[in-house]
């Protein structure tokens, strides 16, 4: 067992405090001086604890205005260690394989569980994505947002954190595949959205499956 | 955009160096003095860089013997931010929901892709798991190892890193469910193993599905 430093112990305490108070993204933490008092440790230990929670994306420090709860929900940067996988092509293929396993049932869950407000936001993202495509601009980021929001619509908290890690991974590592199939992609996104909006889980699942398979084929073609 | 500190820039450089040299788990890194020279930065910056890579579980520092590549493959502690999810019961249910989506197709992939050596190791883990059960000991850790190794047998690098995060999460948060159904659990593990060993992906998938559903039912019964 590795020994915990004072900073790590204080970080654990501070995390407990954050949970007890029910702080959420954007909330401001007490000042360093207040934390010294509440945690009963020195200023350097408080700083070390804040540094640890910052590296875990639990808090974020804005110079001059204080410490806030991060909007990254404690999901680490590169949480699954992609940077340690040397074979980028294999990594991309493995990420696509996971998307094909995960995202179709997620889309079904989204069609089952999305609230009216969820559907409204998903529709807005789709419109922005489509207008990006109409202007023939790079739509990769809007596309990630679309898939991340579908994960959110599932109301599975872990999926909401996990899906962006996988889709962003594909975006980063399959960067070579140009987003040029505007019409086909547009159509398949719209099919997914409409199935979720109309509460048709089976159709949503199959539409997502078709969409991912189509992208996978494009990736394979480009790699040839 | 947040500004990168000198330590973060040096950490990035050091990570690049680790990748270029093809270092793997357990390999020793150059000394602090050598890193000062190679990275062209001061000693404090090297220390900060090492601290960052340590917090990401890329390296581990063993007091007195030096810095080594961590065997955690750069998978962060609590990578998906479970500690920020307040509702523990919902978290457990969501984790189980993900297992039910992910692990059956993973078992199928394992039956398709496992090497003879993979199968041999899986058989050894199963025997240890069974002897734990025969002695009516807590077999939770061996069980995690069994599921993690099946993920490894899939040869999908991301799954290998992801599955333990999910299964360990269930183990931690569903801690209240006692592992007492020795016979049933024993039988369902054996069915999974034999299907993987005999290269029957469809049977492996269904056996895993049965196993997880059985556990899910036990969890729901205990929560009533």
TrEMBL record, chains A, B:
<protein>
    <submittedName>
        <fullName>FadR/GntR family transcriptional regulator</fullName>
    </submittedName>
</protein>
<dbReference type="InterPro" id="IPR000524">
    <property type="entry name" value="Tscrpt_reg_HTH_GntR"/>
</dbReference>
<dbReference type="Pfam" id="PF00392">
    <property type="entry name" value="GntR"/>
</dbReference>
<keyword id="KW-0804">Transcription</keyword>
<dbReference type="Pfam" id="PF07729">
    <property type="entry name" value="FCD"/>
</dbReference>
<dbReference type="InterPro" id="IPR008920">
    <property type="entry name" value="TF_FadR/GntR_C"/>
</dbReference>
<dbReference type="InterPro" id="IPR036388">
    <property type="entry name" value="WH-like_DNA-bd_sf"/>
</dbReference>
<keyword id="KW-0805">Transcription regulation</keyword>
<dbReference type="InterPro" id="IPR011711">
    <property type="entry name" value="GntR_C"/>
</dbReference>
<dbReference type="InterPro" id="IPR036390">
    <property type="entry name" value="WH_DNA-bd_sf"/>
</dbReference>
<feature type="domain" description="HTH gntR-type">
    <location>
        <begin position="4"/>
        <end position="72"/>
    </location>
</feature>
<keyword id="KW-0238">DNA-binding</keyword>
